[in-house]
Amino acid sequence: MKITASLRLAAAILCFLTLAVPTARAGDWRVPQLMQLLAQNKSGTATFVEKNYLSVLNKPVISSGDLSFVAPDKLEKRTLTPRPETLTLDGNILTIALPGKRPMTVSLRQHPEIAAFVESIRGTLAGDLNALQAFYTLKLGGTPERWRLTLKPKSERLARIFDRIVIRGTQADIRFIDLDERDGDHSEMAITQSDIRR
Amino acid sequence: MKVLGKHFALLVWLAGLVACVLVIASTRFVSDLSAFMPHAPNEREQVLISQVRDGIIGRLIMIGIEGGDAAQRARLSHELAGGLRRSGLFMGVQNGDEATQARDRAYFFQNRYLLSPDITPERFTAGGLHAAIADSVAALSDESGMLLKHIFPRDPTGEMLQLLGQFDGGSQPRHLDGVWASRDGTRAVMLAYTRAPGTDTTAQARAIATIRQVFGKLPGLEPDNRILMSGTSVFAVKSRNTIEGQVARLASASLLLVVCLLLLVYRSPRLLAFGLLPVLSGALVGITAVSLAFGKVQGLTMGFGTTLIGEAVDYSIYFFVQRLGQARLAHFWRTIWLGVATSIAGFAALLFSGFPGLAQLGVYTISGLIAAALVTRYVLPALVPANLRVRSLDRLGLALEAVIDRAQALRWLPLLLALAGASVVYLHAGKVWNPDLSSLSPISKADRRVDLTLRRDLGAPDLRYMAAFTAPNQELALQGAEKAGAVLHTLMRDKLIAGFTTPAAILPSLALQRARQEAIPDPATLRRNLKQALVGLPVDIDKLQGFLSDAGSARTRALLTRADLDGTSASMLFDSLLVKRSHDYLVLMPIRAPARDADAPLDIARIQKALQTTHLRDIMTIDLLKETTSLFENYRNEVLAMSEIGTLVIVGLLFISLKSVARTARVVAPLIAAVACDVALILLSGTELTILHLVGLLLVVAIGSNYALFFERLNRAGSPAEYRQTQVSLVVANLTTVGSFGILGFSSIPVLSAVGITVSLGAFLSLVFSAILSGGRLQSTPTPAVLP
User: What is the distance between the alpha carbons of residues B555 and B481, in angstroms, rounded to a whole number?
Assistant: First the structure.
């Protein structure tokens, strides 16, 4: 549960790897070039709509809310519908808060596997490709105008939970994050950038 | 006639010794430290507090495994847990292994309809089901949804989440390679819960030895693998071993030292043997008196027995040395008796202290001193041949006299030092007393650090606040816990408390289980209600067959009993919260304070008032921390008052005997100066005073008054030779005292070292100051001060 929480959070962080001054050219379109583009984000907000397709339900559950990121390490995912929930990552502390309940706090220091996961994403923010590659096999496809980055977990522990994360975007904008879970369920997150600063 | 008197004294003495030996032979000696911890004033509270300690804290052993790598430690953890479970000495061993966790999950999941607090008739109406399932569907989109979706078809109303929510207060240890590990991942950690109660130190020692033994024999042990253990029982066993080891060693070291000193002075083994007779008789009588008065003898009391050696040996020294001048025998005995009386006045203060150990010490010393003085007075003269004499100590005496005469010139020094000492104490105002009870504990700082570390690793619950009550049987105990839980729940809603733990959350009373069963409608009705509830929800009833069948079977199944908990870690928690005793059950409900004001104590009175509405016969809210610290303060004040009274009695005795304010002042002045300097030196060394230092100061007054008295008396009258003998005997007596207490000062048991340092320092200062202020012949005029 905590792993998946931070997984989605990490996906949300990825969506901030989005603003880039230089426009990439099609000629040398590889993962390092994408990382370079994404690494320059400082802070911003965005809205998201997430569809969860679950086998136990006959309709997807749709949730929406907003995301905000403040460099270097504060990130918030605020779900507004159908049920308010706030997920905050501040430094090493991950907090999940439901209204009227005691917030659940997880220190990443106490959970190195989660920490490693989140840190790898942070590493990506800093343009650290190695960190990301330590945990995933990366595959980039498409063109800079319509790219598609696939992350497949290397560790068995993560692979038991999900098959892959697919991130789609245009230049430095992340548009969709899809998560395919092991059991066939999947979720799609559509992101609308509203305000990004560098 | 005189011969008859002599024989009579010997006969009484021998008969007395035989009687003492007989009593001691059947005496129980204990060496735990509890006697040197204050006991609770109210008996009921005392019983409860001790039960609390017995119930949870006393039986728990925290274990850490270090060295190797994480995978190897995990393997050791599994094997150690297996070995300990097989040993039969433990009620439970937990290392966070997947099997136990799975059993825990299975227990809560399979029994959720009997365990969940939300199971009421309303829950299964169409409306109730709709609300609960809609909630779960919303939760599926949450971060927690990933966990829920697998159980959703069987648990669409989210009972499992409710159940888990009840236990989210205590933080769980982290997992590494499938077992519990420390926060930093360098240690595998586990918990063992002994079958034997915490008070059974011998059984605890066996449990601890078994853990070490099993660990030592584990296959694949790396050389750098190390096992750490902590817990109340580990401390108890350790301090018992320390006390047992040290008491014997310290007592023999003291004895050896005294023997050497006496041999040096007497130069005669026979005189030495006679000289030790009063001491040994006193010790036997002292132990017998304690045994008769208390029913058992504390090992530490025996450790303090060296105090008796120090004082009682003085009597025989005085006796032998003074024997040179037989003429003033009556005068001499008056002084001795006055000395005994002042000592008794000092030690009597201990009798009334709240510490059973100190009271024992008081009885031991008083009876021992009286016996030693009587033996010196009546038995020694009958035994010691008249021709056996101490060789002349005149040379030593002359040398001493010269030193003391010169020291007279320094009359201003004690006064100056007293003033300096007083100012040091004044400057330390507010930092004089150590409020921490653990400063008396013989547990080393390193051990306490290990304890703190393991406690943090394991996320052991803070057991500071507790509601407790008793009930005649398990069912009533659980019903009571449910009632108290309802009250605590409202306090939680009012944010007065952050949460609580109750045994009823793990195993509800049969009555409540039955009520929950009755809340579940028959299968046809449930199906109808569910169908209606699902209108407008993205769930098909076909997906929820698991729910219908689970709820249906829960309705008619056998109720849960304690046996259903076997093999789960929840059973350990349950047993520690519901303690089965010989006649009844004790229920403990730990209460958590809100995190925001962790330092601000809970409003115990308000909680207690709220809990009293449950009409549970003896429900009580306890703050264990406050309980011990406030007790400690009370006892310190009590001992302080007793010491003051003791000091006043001593001064009164001196005044009555000396019949002069001026002479009394001459005796008391060096004592005041010695006490002031003693306290100042201890404070300057960076030690804060504890109750035991206070006891030490009292002994300084009691012992020091003897020196002052002898000096004062002897410069009243007597030949120069007699005067010199007194000086010699005083110095020897002082050296034995300083030596035997000084040895205590080296003990690693704080109780012993506090008294040892205080007394040896104070006694030495008393002698020096007495020599300067009261000593010296009256006729000798002080020479002008010439400082070297």
Answer: 24
The pLDDT score that the predictor gives to residue B477 is: 95
- The amino acid occupying position B37 is M
Which residue in A61, A102, A112 is closest to B141 by CB distance? Answer: A61
Question: A97 and B142 in contact (C-beta within 8 Å)?
Answer: no
Residue type (1 letter), B220: G
Percent of chain B with pLDDT over 70: 84
Residues whose CB falls within 8 Å of the CB of residue B71, separated by 6 or more in sequence, listed in order: B177
ipTM greater than 0.85, yes or no?
no
Looking at CATH, the fold of the domain delimited by A2-193 is given as outer membrane lipoprotein receptor (LolB), chain A (2.50.20)
Q: Quick check: A87 and B143 in contact, CB under 8 A?
A: yes
CA B650 to CA B648: how far, in whole Å? Answer: 5
Chain A hits for B147, CB-CB cut-off 8 Å, are 1
Hey, are the CB atoms on B153 and A56 less than 8 Å from each other? Answer: yes
> What DSSP character marks residue B166?
T
* φ/ψ (deg, to 5) at B611: -70, -25
> Tens digits of per-residue pLDDT, B490-549?
998 888 888 888 999 999 999 999 999 999 999 999 999 999 999 988 889 998 999 999
Distance CA A157, CA B369 (A): 74
State which amino acid sits at residue B96: G
Q: pTM value?
A: 0.67
B477, two tokens: 């105990």
A interface mutation test: which of B98, B135, B137, B146 has the most A CBs within 10 A?
A: B146
Distance in angstroms (rounded) separating the CA atoms of residues B241 and B244: 5
Q: Where are the alpha helices (DSSP H) in B393-440?
A: 394-407, 412-427
Q: What is the 3-state secondary structure (H, E, C) of B319-381?
A: HHHHCCCHHHHHHHHHHHHHHHHHHHHHHHHHHCCCCHHHHHHHHHHHHHHHHHHHHHHHHHH
- Smallest Cα–Cα separation from A31: which of A112, A144, A185, A182? A144
pLDDT, tens digit (0-9, with 9 covering 90-100), for A80-104: 887 788 888 777 777 777 776 666 6
Tell me how far CA of residue B491 lies from CA of B63, B591, B606, in angstroms: 35, 11, 10
Q: Which residue has the tokens 């011969």?
A: B3
B446 touches B564 (CB < 8 A): no
Q: What single-letter amino acid sits at A120?
A: S
How many Cα atoms within 13 Å fall on the side-chain side of residue A77?
A: 27
- The answer to whether B398 and B724 are in contact (CB under 8 A) is yes
Render pLDDT for B419-456 as a digit per residue (tens, 0 to 9). Answer: 888 888 888 877 777 766 666 666 777 888 888 888 88
Residue B141 in contact with partner chain A when CB distance is under 8 A: yes
Whether the CB of A156 is below 8 Å from some CB of chain B: the reply is no
DSSP string, B246-288: HHHHHHHHHHHHHHHHHHHHH--HHHHHHHHHHHHHHHHHHHH
Q: Which residue has the tokens 């003693």?
A: B678
Q: How far apart are CA B321 and CA B753, in angstroms?
A: 31
Task: Return the DSSP state at B775.
Answer: -
Using the structure block, give the residue that is written with the tokens 């012992």.
B703
CA distances from A158 to A53, A163, A182, B209 (A): 20, 8, 10, 41
Q: Chain B contact for A61, CB < 8 A? A: yes
For every residue of A31-79, DSSP letters joined together read: HHHHHHHHTT--EEEEEEEEEEE-TTSSS-EEEEEEEEEETTTEEEEEE
- Dist. CA B510–CA B741, nearest whole Å: 62
Rounded Cα distance, B149 and A186, in Å = 12
Phi, psi of A52 (to 5 degrees): -105, 115
Distance in angstroms between the alpha carbons of the first and the last residue of chain B: 59
Tell me if B168 and A102 make a contact (CB, 8 A cut-off).
yes
Sorted by where each begins, the domain ranges of chain A are 2-193
